[in-house]
Every structure is written in C-alpha cells, then in structure tokens.
Amino acid sequence: MSDPKPEKRQSWEEGGPERLYVLTSGRSTPSDPAPLDMVTLIVTRNGPGSSMQPEQAGILRICDYPLSVAEISAYLHLPVSVVTVLLADLLGSGHVEARAPIPATSLPDVELLEAVMHGLQNL
Amino acid sequence: MDCKISEPIVGPRSEDILPASVSTAVKVVIVGGFGVGKTTLVGSVSEIRPLTTEETMTQAGVGVDDTAGVERKTETTVAMDFGRISLSEELVLYLFGTPGQQRFWFLWNGLFEGALGAVVLIDTRRLEDSFDVMGRLEERGVPFIVAINAFPDAPHYAVPELRKAMDLPESVRIIDCDARDRASSRDALLTLMRYLYSLNTTTTEPQ
Ligand SMILES: Nc1nc2c(ncn2[C@@H]2O[C@H](COP(=O)(O)OP(=O)(O)O)[C@@H](O)[C@H]2O)c(=O)[nH]1
Ligand SMILES: [Mg+2]
C-alpha cells in the first residue's frame, strides 16, 4: 500500500464533485458547526426515515454500535469533510449521538495516558 | 430526482464492531515519507484491517507544468490509512498514517487537533525527508517521538549519531523499531505515551 492510490483516485473522480455537491445540498460546511473530529464516535439513536438520503440511512444502519467519523468515511467511501456535513444533519435531528473525543475535564490527562499505557501493555 | 445506482454501504464486519460502552476515542498520528512503513506499522498493531479515508485537495497556483505560466487549479485525492486498538471497554485508540511531505500538510488540520502526539517514522536512507515534518510538528506544538524503521539494506547508525545528524535535542526520544513486528510497533506507541506522560507530570507541577 502506498499513500496516493492512483486507481482509487480514478474511481473517486467517477463519482465526481457534483455528487458531493448534491449530497451536501451545496453546503461545504455544516450549517450548525458541531465540533466533529475524525475520532468522534457516532451512535445511532433513531432508525432512518423513509425520505432520507441513502448515505444518511447508511450511516444510521452502520452506526448501531459506535463508529468513528473516520470509519464512517471509509465505509461510505466519502471524504471526512462530506461525512461531517451529513452527520451535522443527523445530529441536528437527533438521529445520532456523538461522543466527543476530547476527554472531559473529569478525566485528567495523566489518567487518560495511564489508561492508554495500560491498554497497550496488555496487547 | 435522478436515480443513481450506488454501491451498497457495507459496515464493519461483526468482529470489527466496538462495544456499545466505548465512550472515549483518542488518536495518534504516524507520519513519515513514502514507503517508510506507516501503513505497515498501523497494520501491525491494529485490531481491524487498516481502513482508508480520502480527502480531496484543491490547490490554486502554478501547476507542475510551469512553462505554461498559467494559474491553474489542481485537484488531488490523498488516501490516509488508519487502524484501531481497543484499550478497554470504554477507551479506543485510533492510529492514522499520514504522508509527511509539505504538499500534504492540508490534511493535518483535522488530524493533529486533539491528537495525543505523533510518531515520526524514519528510514535512515532518507533522513532529510523528515526534517520538514519535525519542524512543522514543533511549530504546531505536537509532541512526537522518532522511530527508526530498520530496513535490512539501510545503514545502521547509533542513536547519538542520528540525533546529531537530525539536530534533535536530548528531549526528543529516538528509538529503533520494526514496523512489521506487532510488539515493536506497540513499544513505539508506548514510548510516545511515556514521553507524553513525562511532559505532563513535569509541566503540571504546582507553582
Ligand atoms: N524490511 C522491512 N520492510 C518494511 C518495514 N516496514 C515496511 N516495510 C516494507 O516497506 C514497504 C513500504 O511500507 P508501507 O508501510 O507501505 O509504507 P508507507 O508508505 O509509509 O505507508 C512495504 O513493502 C513494506 O512491506 C520494515 O520494518 N522492514
Ligand atoms: Mg501507506
């Protein structure tokens, strides 16, 4: 595996920028800028409605259990920037819940690091 | 409405599903030049087969063909590999491999924000590839360690020699690593964590 994937680039371009434009209704940034990180965990709260975009319905389907924004992007074959826009709507309508990656103040950095080290040592 | 046939969305395999109890995700970035072993390292320690996320970059400016002298826009798609390690029922670690070259720095915005830190992977045959990256990490205030990925045909240097060649202060940890080896890759991550821990416990001392 190498970093730029020419064959993938090809297939991506077939989808074309128009597809992204349609998916995000012309918006390039979320209307309600939720602080979504690549590792924000998304979990479905309510199943898809009948008039939902297939991509959004797909997100609701695969997020039965927590998935990061990056994983959603990988499974949907869409850039993170597009997934973020789709998720902003789903968050707004309460279809999904987001678990922010930045640890709350209740979990001090040192404690978090200890938990990470502990987990790694047990690998 | 146009009916476009799109490929069905396939989610994680059953063995790749995270428990519902996971509440916190953290991330670490593996950065380095092409072919230095980023994807290999991510794959060695990841519990899932590495996944790929793509981002498009639109760059205005002079293209590769600068004889034209025309301002042009270029669109490039960059793939980023990532993996995942469940550390407990509540905590999960994501590892992102990202190319270090300056033209990919646009990827860094969403990537390094909130990251615990970075592992700079180095091939001793191309030390200079890493200079810009380390400078940039310093600028952004991202703590990092340096891991020398030992390729059999690469010259082996002792750490002090490398430190001198890369002009790195004693405070930056340099370790040897074999990205193909799970334990070795895990140890690189642990070295980063211990470094972060030391930063944390020395700078948060009461005044
Ligand atoms: N001998 C040796 N080969 C390695 C090592 N790490 C990676 N490779 C090989 O180097 C090539 C490039 O590695 P890759 O992980 O794709 O590099 P990336 O471009 O940084 O993601 C692959 O063929 C790997 O199998 C290593 O530690 N030792
Ligand atoms: Mg790679």
C-alpha-based Rg of chain A, rounded: 17 Å
Radius of gyration of chain B, CA atoms, in whole angstroms? 19 Å
Strand order of the largest sheet of chain B: 2-3-4-1-5-6-7
Query: What is the correct CATH architecture of chain A?
Result: Orthogonal Bundle
* SS class of chain A: mainly alpha
Largest sheet of chain B: 7 strands, mixed
Task: Outline the biggest β-sheet of chain A.
Answer: 3 strands, antiparallel
Shape of chain A: elongated
Amino-to-carboxy terminus distance of chain A: 25 Å
Provide a count of the helices of chain B: 5
User: Quick one: CATH superfamily of chain A?
Assistant: Winged helix-like DNA-binding domain superfamily/Winged helix DNA-binding domain
What would the CATH topology of chain B be? Answer: Rossmann fold
CATH class of chain A: Mainly Alpha
| Named CATH topology of chain A | Arc Repressor Mutant, subunit A
Query: pLDDT average of chain B, as an integer?
Result: 87
Element-level helix/strand string of chain B: EHEEEHEHEHEH
Flag low-confidence runs of chain B.
none
Report low-confidence residues of chain A grouped into runs of 5 or more: 1-19, 28-34
Give me the CATH architecture of chain B, please. Answer: 3-Layer(aba) Sandwich
